[in-house]
Write a structure and sequence with these properties.
By secondary structure, this protein is α/β, with parallel strands linked by helices. The protein is built from 6 helices and 5 strands. Strands 3-2-1-4-5 form a 5-stranded parallel beta sheet. α1 links the parallel β1 and β2.
Length: 164
């Protein structure tokens, strides 16, 4: 039986930090389901379909990662329900800094209360990617800064188009 992990997030847009977590997850799991949140409680730069397109281009066009091992999907449900749907008992989450930990710890606890068969696995990005956030990437590109150290070429192209 293959081991599947669910990696939920907004990915608005995907960064090298996210990609680092995906690559590390692929060493541990047979398949990663990158689940793109489409809930209405956030103000997204890109809609869900655009974010899925950006992720697919970044992972499969820019980085040539294995399409058989990564599935990118939208979701509006509880993450625990998504796990059940995809027969996974692992939620994959990335940690950048200590400031992320409190929120992630609470989220993992709530998910555990919703379904005690699900574990949350935290992976840290490599040091050079720990400072990257989608928020900062958007701010830098909006101010015409260089973000090539933070995300892929196709993502940069789509970000630039959004801010033209």
């Amino acid at each position: 039986m293959s081991k599947i992990a669910i990696y939920p997030g907004t990915f608005d847009p995907i960064t090298f930090g996210h990609i680092d977590v995906i690559k590390k997850g692929l060493r541990l799991f047979d398949k990663i389901v990158v689940a793109v949140s489409d809930v209405d409680n956030k103000d997204y730069l890109f809609d869900c379909e655009e974010r899925i397109e950006i992720i697919n281009k970044a992972l499969f066009f820019d980085l040539k990662l294995n399409k058989k091992k990564i599935k990118v999907i939208p979701f509006t449900s509880l993450t625990t329900d998504l796990c059940k749907k995809h027969k996974s008992n692992i939620i994959l989450r990335g940690l950048r800094a200590v400031s992320d930990f409190e929120y992630e710890f609470q989220l993992a606890g709530m998910n555990r209360k919703l379904n005690n068969n699900i574990e949350t696995l935290f992976l840290m990005s490599d040091v050079e990617n720990q400072i990257i956030s989608s928020k900062f990437v958007k701010e830098i590109i909006k101010l015409k800064g260089n973000i090539k150290k933070f995300t892929t070429k196709s993502t940069i192209k789509l970000l630039k188009r959004k801010y033209e």
